[in-house]
ABC transporter permease protein (Roseobacter denitrificans), 272 residues
Amino acid sequence: MIKALRTSSLGDILGIGLVLFIAVFSLILLIAPSIIVVIISFDTRAFVSFPPEGFTLRWYAEVFEQTELVGAMWTSLKVGLMVTALCIVLGVPTALACVRGKFRGTTALSVFVLVPHMVPGIVLGVAVLFAGALVGVSPSIWLQAVSIAVFIMAVMVRTVQSRLVRLDPALEEAATNLGASSFQSLRTITFPLLLPAILAGAVFTFVEGFDNLSVAIFTHGFRDRPLPVELLALVQYTSTPLVAAVSGVQILLAILALVAVSMSIGLDKVNE
């Protein structure tokens, strides 16, 4: 009996150790490329190499000295904000309809929202480009924002849905019984409780809208080239750490966005 308990305890320890090893190894695989890129961006040499020979901020200064890169950053910022606004305006009502809707087809609607996100971005980008050509809409910042919003709408919908299914409908019913209209109940009860999920979804959609390449490469205008497309062009004719510095700026923006969500509402409260 004691031998069996010892064997079981040893098996549990080995199992926990294996799980921890896999978790740590997976985490290293996820963050190691980003860390290496950031380290390379501080190298003093004029070509990409690892490990670096020295430390300098020259390449970050050069990022903001090049008008093409600064213009591309502003374009990506505008696209990210437009995508976020579209996802909030369209995604939140869609999530409400999928969870609180009292009509047939709510499940089909929920699945339909996922379809564009399941399609490869390149395929969606080409489809939007051809569809725009058929109706006379040329590539522009507006077409880029709309196509990316369609591509990542599911992120906002699913984030809000996961929060909405945990809300007790009795809260809304109580407000209605006390004389509040459906709109008042939605505005004073539902939306405040959904705010953490909406803000989290807004951050995720903004980061994706700012950093999207697969859709943007087919839908951006000639004068509205976003940062990912500009970075792709930059890689083709230069091998300096300037490319790594641009990537470092993008990584910093993503980290700041997550920190903002964590400090304002807390990542642990998104799905509570």
Observations:
- The chain has a mean pLDDT of 78.
- The radius of gyration is 24 Å.
- The chain has one domain: 60-269.
- DSSP finds eleven helices and no strands in the chain.
